[in-house]
Automatic annotation (TrEMBL):
<feature type="domain" description="AAA+ ATPase">
    <location>
        <begin position="62"/>
        <end position="196"/>
    </location>
</feature>
<dbReference type="GO" id="GO:0005524">
    <property type="term" value="F:ATP binding"/>
</dbReference>
<feature type="region of interest" description="Small ATPAse domain (RuvB-S)">
    <location>
        <begin position="193"/>
        <end position="263"/>
    </location>
</feature>
<keyword id="KW-0347">Helicase</keyword>
<dbReference type="InterPro" id="IPR008824">
    <property type="entry name" value="RuvB-like_N"/>
</dbReference>
<feature type="binding site">
    <location>
        <position position="76"/>
    </location>
    <ligand>
        <name>ATP</name>
    </ligand>
</feature>
<dbReference type="GO" id="GO:0009378">
    <property type="term" value="F:four-way junction helicase activity"/>
</dbReference>
<comment type="function">
    <text>The RuvA-RuvB-RuvC complex processes Holliday junction (HJ) DNA during genetic recombination and DNA repair, while the RuvA-RuvB complex plays an important role in the rescue of blocked DNA replication forks via replication fork reversal (RFR). RuvA specifically binds to HJ cruciform DNA, conferring on it an open structure. The RuvB hexamer acts as an ATP-dependent pump, pulling dsDNA into and through the RuvAB complex. RuvB forms 2 homohexamers on either side of HJ DNA bound by 1 or 2 RuvA tetramers; 4 subunits per hexamer contact DNA at a time.</text>
</comment>
<dbReference type="InterPro" id="IPR036388">
    <property type="entry name" value="WH-like_DNA-bd_sf"/>
</dbReference>
<feature type="binding site">
    <location>
        <position position="32"/>
    </location>
    <ligand>
        <name>ATP</name>
    </ligand>
</feature>
<keyword id="KW-0227">DNA damage</keyword>
<feature type="region of interest" description="Disordered">
    <location>
        <begin position="337"/>
        <end position="356"/>
    </location>
</feature>
<feature type="binding site">
    <location>
        <position position="77"/>
    </location>
    <ligand>
        <name>ATP</name>
    </ligand>
</feature>
<dbReference type="GO" id="GO:0005737">
    <property type="term" value="C:cytoplasm"/>
</dbReference>
<dbReference type="Pfam" id="PF17864">
    <property type="entry name" value="AAA_lid_4"/>
</dbReference>
<feature type="region of interest" description="Large ATPase domain (RuvB-L)">
    <location>
        <begin position="12"/>
        <end position="192"/>
    </location>
</feature>
<dbReference type="InterPro" id="IPR027417">
    <property type="entry name" value="P-loop_NTPase"/>
</dbReference>
Amino acid sequence: MTGPTGPVGPGADRLLGAEADGEEQAIEAALRPKDLGEFVGQERVREQLDLVLRAARQRGATADHVLLSGAPGLGKTTLSMIIAAEMGAPIRITSGPAIQHAGDLAAILSSLTEGEVLFLDEIHRMSRPAEEMLYMAMEDFRVDVIVGKGPGATAIPLELPPFTLVGATTRAGLLPPPLRDRFGFTGHMEFYGAPELERVIHRSARLLDVEIDAEGAIEIAGRSRGTPRIANRLLRRVRDYAQVKADGVITQEIASRALAVYDVDGRGLDRLDRAVLTALLKLFGGGPVGLSTLAVAVGEERETVEEVAEPFLVREGLLARTPRGRVGTPAAWAHLGLTPPQGTGSGGVQSGLFDG
């Protein structure tokens, strides 16, 4: 997920090493669609959101609060900016982890202007006191500011101008029902198919003034893990390779050679993904093996393996989570060109290490 100052969450940009510098962030901002017509993919969410915004404009009212959920890099931040643009309103960007006290939220809310859009990224990570204050702000456009402590404390009501809250979360299940129910519109962002990613790549290539053929776009799209942000990052790295090592034109061959340099294989797996699979299959015979043991084997934190590598590996059908531990699937053995041990069925040993 991208926050107001860059990527949020462990390993958010590990495909390409260190966090993007100022120039890279500026390029990312330039590639963002400016309205719903330019936004590629998420047709259902776009159609529903368009109705919500059009109706609000016709009424001359502030748009309902919007909750966007889905994996990092699918366009939640971009949609929040589009909502503000479509409503002709300014946007204020912050994140859940930055709001640790109710006073932090009160300071932000009290400075909003009428109709302003407040984008709250990773809303599920907001502190509980701030969360409870947000309930009243969303519903009644009012907050109670507590002055003093103990028996002498006084609640001073503070009226707020109507505003639109756009909350983004990668873990919608962690939002308490009272908060979820206060959003007038909830949209779930799906992973992109290859044709949609090809459209994203061609659009970005035009904006970057990069020449790319259809096969080159197909090659990059197939390794982009269903995520536009990754597609754009890979496009920029392939552009660099084509500029330095070739004539600047991105073809299938150039894209394939460039992505091999950056350790992104044909299915989009990177160094960490392959390290997890290799350890699981070679060291533990395909599993089952506990998450902590697997993390130690690849030299990463448990949370990094669980939150960064595993979701994509599970989605690709290369790894399975079982009550006894992680298990490599037949597709994982085939992808790494390995032969599973005899008599293990799905490729996992019958007695593995399990530590949660």
